[in-house]
Amino acid sequence: MGKNYKIGVIRGDGIGAEIVDEAINVLDAVATKFNFTLNYEDFLLGGAAIDETGVPLPEETINGVKKVDAVLFGAIGGPKWDNLERHLRPESGLLALRKEMGTFANLRPAIVYDELVNASTLKPEVVKGVDVMVVRELTGGIYFGQPREYSSQKAYNTMVYTREEIRRIAEVAFDIALKRDKRVCSVDKANVLEVSQLWREIVEEVSKDYPDVELTHMYVDNAAMQLIREPKQFDVILTGNIFGDILSDAASMLSGSIGLLPSASIGSKVGLYEPIHGSAPDIAGQGIANPIATIASAAMMLRYALNELEAADAIDSAIKKVLADGYRTGDISAYDAKEIVSTTEMGSIIANYVSKA
Q1: CB count, 10 Å around CB of 49?
Q2: Which of 221, 269, 282, 325 is an active site residue?
Q3: Is 321 a catalytic residue?
Q4: Residue range 243-297, pLDDT digits in tens
Q5: 351 and which of 29, 150, 182, 210 could share a cystine (Cβ 3.0–4.6 Å)?
Q6: Annotation says 189 is catalytic
Q7: Number of helical (H) and strand (E) elements in the chain, helices listed first
Q8: Are residues 316 and 213 in the same domain?
């Protein structure tokens, strides 16, 4: 009998339920194929939690996610909750959840599929073959620094990083680089920020433990430019919270659709696996959302949380096959589409490819 895993499921808001359902469809197919069992438990977060409990992150969710092997997450937020006080908004719940879960490392791959090379706004010769992993520190930096204050006349935030926070995220980046092309580019602003000076110093220290990995440094403004000018120069990009937030979004658009790319938030405890896109409330319930990013996030969950490497590879291969065979959701329908399919149809086709492989 194969292994048995407990998976927390947070569908969230907007298209969250639709895309998570298709990821679960694919996960069930791959679990059957590779003889392991996935048991799911639902938790509330974001707007759905506010509507039911009055807060974006209920205690039941905080306690529950710490008892599972991994969490699969859809998306949160929407105009309905935009006018709430900051601490009651859906996004505040997500930030707090990441902190509670200890997910200090955000892994965001930016991959350009050959079949969709024309979907990018950049020239095909620039983006063909791009495979970048952005490793973003997720629970420190300016988003969490104290003191912070807002008034109508003055507002300020504080950027803070400790030696331990920098060391542990650097180790994650170097470990990932060992399994890729063995190159890390650390991105900072060490020419003007003391925090970045410390960041660079500690990353240099960590690099001595990884002699097989090449380390380079780049200022964040130059990195943003280089991502557009010559993205294939990057393998693993290591950076802090706010820089990583911006650079990973820029990298995501190399692929041409934000609906294609997954992410993993990992650390010392349970990991959170989610698409990089938002809840898209304007298309919720229409059956046109692209579930591929969520399905790819499920593959990352299998790889990084459960160590089911063959199952993860099977999902990744099925995604490539579905694109090679010309199946497209509406967001990528302009690029060599042979058949335009719905959210559920895309999930079913990928699940079927997994089962038959």
Answers
A1: 23
A2: 221
A3: no
A4: 999 999 899 889 877 888 899 999 878 999 999 899 999 999 999 999 999 999 9
A5: 29
A6: yes
A7: 12, 14
A8: no
